[in-house]
């Protein structure tokens, strides 16, 4: 046996001669017949050589994982290891190699080989609803170490000795993701299965996997899925995720209400959204979203999507829509002609708009508070000169980053320094060259050094610790105010904003001076 050190250098060469018991016994009989010649005959036997080597080191003891870091196996082992990993992805494959343990230097890797493997499996799970089940192998000891529920199931006082356990309420892909975490200490999440995985982690009390699922959902949270995740977060009792969902829904309410996911929420979640005081949306958008939800709900209940059935599935939630707070044009051209309101309700709401003595209504008549935008001003002073600031189709741009998620609603811009003037502004927000939001609008400046807001159509979600590029191209009076004494870091409430120069800026705007003095955002 050739012993080598960690650097691959030879240390000792040992030779072992192994003798089977029967051979020793036979030779002992032969030697006993010779009597006095036993000593001479025994000297002819092959010597049994052994040596115990103790390797001394002054370093601290290391675990196997430290001594053998996870590397790709080389030479002949590579194919075998890759083959076994592929078998784990498939179902119920037994490892054929007699010495597969030797391919993996750490207990963690050897334990991972057992994932989704029939080898030594002492329990099987039939996972999934009828018609979509999958039979998965398991090992009671490993499962019990990873989950208190499995421990109670297999080793508790009420444990049942079953070879097969049916789990109809968990999706096979989610159950496999949980098993992979328990066996391999690896978290493998996907957008289409993360909710089902969270359910499995909650059911079997695997808290670290559940936390990873929540973090995944928070990272991928957007206006498109916020309503669905709000419904699920309440079901799973995840208050942090619930709060994140409300932040997105409040700030990007119109996008959230127009998303397909809004129609998939349950009735309780619908009511909570319609009650929301800080919903930042026009009431006509809220009304149309509720009707869209009602139409889909009729399909879920196998009802014809008639006006009567839509009103039936909405129930008392209809009166949570603040119809009297709509603009009169929105009501007259939208809600009043939708057919969802009774004739008396329509007449009373019209009287509410026009009559001095207003009738009593079942609808909430108090406008929503919405959100109050915050402004981050990056200059300490402003000025104007006869030869600055000029606009000839050139771009003013600045880069910024925040330490908390915010929603950029627009920019504050300087106006004319030569009296009242109107500007046409094309504003744009990019991340790594990708346009996240843009809008073309006009604003009127009164000749003062104040800033004037220009809004995006919808607020744009900004993730923390990433630089974004804010740009504007102005067309109007060539001479305007501009900022001076710019700051590289600004504390705005609980949000810290950092600024740096942008290569897109071709009109002179930078950190120290120029245009785009304000970021307008919700936080």
UniProtKB/TrEMBL annotation:
InterPro entries: BACK, BTB/POZ_dom, PHR, PHR_sf, SKP1/BTB/POZ_sf
Keyword Ribosomal protein: no
Biased composition annotated in UniProt, kind: Low complexity: 34-44
Localization per record: Cytoplasm
GO cellular component: cytosol
Alphabetical UniProt keywords: Cytoplasm
BTB domain boundaries: 121-191
Pfam family, one: BTB
Annotated region (Disordered), positions in chain: 25-45
Superkingdom of this protein's organism: Eukaryota
Keyword Transmembrane set for record: no
GO BP of this protein: cerebral cortex development; dendrite morphogenesis
Protein name: BTBD3 protein
Gene: Btbd3
């Amino acid at each position: 046996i050739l012993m080598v050190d960690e650097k691959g250098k030879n240390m000792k060469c040992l030779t072992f001669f192994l003798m089977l018991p029967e051979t020793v016994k036979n030779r002992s009989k032969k030697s006993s017949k010779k009597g006095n010649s036993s000593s001479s005959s025994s000297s002819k036997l092959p010597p049994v050589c052994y040596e115990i080597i103790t390797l001394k080191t002054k370093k601290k003891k290391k675990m196997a994982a430290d001594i053998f870091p996870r590397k790709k196996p080389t030479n002949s082992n590579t194919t075998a290891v890759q083959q076994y990993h592929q078998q784990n992805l498939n179902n119920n494959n037994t490892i054929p190699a007699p010495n597969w343990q030797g391919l993996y230097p750490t207990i963690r890797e050897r334990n991972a080989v057992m994932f989704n493997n029939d080898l030594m499996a002492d329990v099987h799970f039939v996972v999934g609803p009828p018609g979509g089940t999958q039979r998965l192998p398991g090992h009671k000891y490993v499962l019990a170490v990873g989950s208190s529920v499995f421990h109670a199931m297999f080793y508790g006082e009420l444990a049942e000795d079953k070879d097969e356990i049916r789990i109809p309420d968990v999706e096979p892909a989610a159950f496999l993701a949980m098993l992979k975490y328990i066996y391999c200490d690896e978290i493998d999440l996907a957008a289409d299965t993360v909710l089902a995985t969270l359910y499995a982690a909650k059911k079997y009390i695997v808290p670290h996997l559940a936390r990873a699922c929540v973090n995944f959902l928070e990272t991928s949270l957007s206006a498109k899925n916020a309503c669905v995740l709000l419904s699920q977060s309440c079901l799973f009792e995840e208050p942090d995720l619930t709060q994140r969902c409300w932040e997105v829904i409040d700030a990007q309410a119109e996008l959230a209400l127009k998303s397909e996911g809004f129609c998939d929420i349950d009735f309780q979640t619908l009511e909570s959204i319609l009650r929301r005081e800080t919903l930042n949306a026009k009431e006509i958008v809220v009304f149309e979203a509720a009707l869209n939800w009602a139409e889909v709900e009729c399909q879920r209940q196998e009802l014809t999507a008639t006006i009567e059935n839509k009103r039936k599935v909405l129930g008392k939630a209809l009166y949570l829509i603040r119809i009297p707070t709509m603009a009169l044009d929105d009501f007259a051209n939208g809600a009043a002609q939708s057919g969802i309101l009774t004739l008396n309700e329509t007449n009373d709401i019209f009287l509410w708009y026009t009559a001095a003595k207003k009738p009593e209504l079942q609808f909430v008549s108090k406008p929503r508070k919405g959100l109050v935008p915050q402004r981050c001003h990056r200059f300490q002073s402003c000025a104007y000169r006869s030869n600055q600031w000029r606009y000839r189709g050139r771009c003013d741009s600045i880069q910024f980053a925040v330490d908390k998620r915010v929603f950029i609603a627009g920019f504050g811009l300087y106006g004319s320094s030569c009296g009242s003037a109107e500007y046409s502004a094309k504003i744009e927000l990019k991340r790594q060259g990708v346009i996240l939001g843009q809008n073309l609008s006009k604003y009127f400046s009164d000749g003062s050094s104040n800033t004037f807001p220009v809004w995006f159509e919808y607020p744009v979600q900004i993730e923390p610790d990433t630089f974004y590029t804010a740009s504007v191209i102005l067309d109007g009076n060539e001479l305007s105010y501009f900022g001076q004494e710019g700051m590289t870091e600004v504390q705005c409430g609980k949000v810290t904003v950092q600024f740096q120069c942008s290569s897109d800026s071709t009109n002179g705007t930078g950190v120290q001076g120029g245009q785009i003095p304000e970021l307008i955002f919700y936080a």
